[in-house]
């Protein structure tokens, strides 16, 4: 059921729809090399084959991990003979330097139009020499409706699909196949084919694919996938941003995805980061309780550990938020890394050793505990930074509001 023209592609209409970038390239016959990246089964190979079918160029497919430089040489020789070859290079993020160096001059000459396919983020995992010679397009998981369109085509197509079979697919079975594959059309088509080919005809002569049959034939895909893949880090990112945005239900959804993937270490680490980065001084006790929840989850393990984790996520979502702590230390670090250190004032220098007083170290230091309220006005910052302010209090929570009042009182007292 691989599309043979751009018009046959379901989904990815922001790239291949009328008037969009890839459609324009094909119409103008001005193809350039590109990298398509996104989850499996979302149409990367289909786009490449449809481009080739729409342009009538020769189409070859290789794998950067398993095919050799000799295989690339065969494609290059064909391109020299025929003029242009579209090469789909799967797993392009695994292209080694020898193959890359061979490919580059052919890309620059235009003899080979490279369409690289990868599930990895090309800005992180693909060599800059290749990136600079290609356009990068992201493909997205297909919607439920897109997958249903493709499944219905497969059911009715008599030449390339299952149209010759007396197939009857129940609506709820079709919904299950479309929904359970998490936007992966390849898995959906494979599941449909297995259900159709392995189900014997009923008394009426028809092959009935029910939801029960679909569930038996279709292995559910892991929602988060490879723990080292981009999709996993996207879920972690969405998890933190949902808590930061106070969306309890979204945060619980992403927590559930991470729990289903069994990635307790990432959940625990991220939750502690969130507690201090996004809630912080607005509700410092909540941060402490998050640490306790993490410790409980680590001792319990999964699946029981999900319970304290869910409690912590709900509290963090509904807590007042403040990032003043991370903003303060980052501003201070920016000064330090920028060379704005300044000399430690003489009265603050270490004076515990013999001879320190002769150097002037510690002279004039006033011990705050000797004064009323355990405070005395004196300079602590270096002279070059004596007016610097890194902490800018927020007043979203009662706890930081009290800190803000005290911080402002002390700054005013020091200015008097």
UniProtKB/TrEMBL annotation:
<dbReference type="InterPro" id="IPR003959">
    <property type="entry name" value="ATPase_AAA_core"/>
</dbReference>
<dbReference type="GO" id="GO:0006261">
    <property type="term" value="P:DNA-templated DNA replication"/>
</dbReference>
<dbReference type="Pfam" id="PF00004">
    <property type="entry name" value="AAA"/>
</dbReference>
<dbReference type="GO" id="GO:0008047">
    <property type="term" value="F:enzyme activator activity"/>
</dbReference>
<feature type="domain" description="AAA+ ATPase">
    <location>
        <begin position="30"/>
        <end position="142"/>
    </location>
</feature>
<dbReference type="GO" id="GO:0005524">
    <property type="term" value="F:ATP binding"/>
</dbReference>
<dbReference type="GO" id="GO:0017116">
    <property type="term" value="F:single-stranded DNA helicase activity"/>
</dbReference>
<keyword id="KW-0067">ATP-binding</keyword>
<dbReference type="InterPro" id="IPR051314">
    <property type="entry name" value="AAA_ATPase_RarA/MGS1/WRNIP1"/>
</dbReference>
<protein>
    <recommendedName>
        <fullName>Replication-associated recombination protein A</fullName>
    </recommendedName>
</protein>
<dbReference type="InterPro" id="IPR032423">
    <property type="entry name" value="AAA_assoc_2"/>
</dbReference>
<dbReference type="Pfam" id="PF16193">
    <property type="entry name" value="AAA_assoc_2"/>
</dbReference>
<dbReference type="InterPro" id="IPR021886">
    <property type="entry name" value="MgsA_C"/>
</dbReference>
<dbReference type="InterPro" id="IPR003593">
    <property type="entry name" value="AAA+_ATPase"/>
</dbReference>
<dbReference type="GO" id="GO:0000731">
    <property type="term" value="P:DNA synthesis involved in DNA repair"/>
</dbReference>
<dbReference type="GO" id="GO:0003677">
    <property type="term" value="F:DNA binding"/>
</dbReference>
<dbReference type="InterPro" id="IPR008921">
    <property type="entry name" value="DNA_pol3_clamp-load_cplx_C"/>
</dbReference>
<dbReference type="Pfam" id="PF12002">
    <property type="entry name" value="MgsA_C"/>
</dbReference>
<dbReference type="GO" id="GO:0016887">
    <property type="term" value="F:ATP hydrolysis activity"/>
</dbReference>
<comment type="similarity">
    <text>Belongs to the AAA ATPase family. RarA/MGS1/WRNIP1 subfamily.</text>
</comment>
<keyword id="KW-0547">Nucleotide-binding</keyword>
<dbReference type="InterPro" id="IPR027417">
    <property type="entry name" value="P-loop_NTPase"/>
</dbReference>
